[in-house]
Design brief:
Length: 90
């Protein structure tokens, strides 16, 4: 490796504001606080996606409306509709 072009790879402490968890790992990220820690708003310990507490909400039946709108029409249903229009035209 070329000397002097790589950032320092050092042991740093990470602190999560969401759950107050702290852990140490090696990184090239420089801390921006006076205490030497890298502060995070949320981590994998408290994020809803990783904890399984994420809620998927189908507001106002949007999925059902989509499925009804774009459902495939069977050939029997299509022929019934054409017969009805033929009878009304006469």
């Amino acid at each position: 490796m070329k000397a002097g072009i790589h950032p320092p790879y050092e042991l740093r402490t990470f602190h999560c504001y969401g759950c107050a968890t702290e852990w140490q790992t090696r990184t090239t990220i420089e801390p921006h606080s006076n205490d030497g820690k890298i502060h995070l708003d949320i981590c994998s310990n408290c994020h809803p996606f990783f904890t399984g507490k994420q809620k998927l909400i189908d507001k106002a039946g949007r999925v059902d409306r989509f499925r009804k709108r774009y459902a495939k029409v069977t050939p029997a249903e299509a022929s019934d509709k054409t017969e009805k229009t033929d009878k009304t035209d006469k």
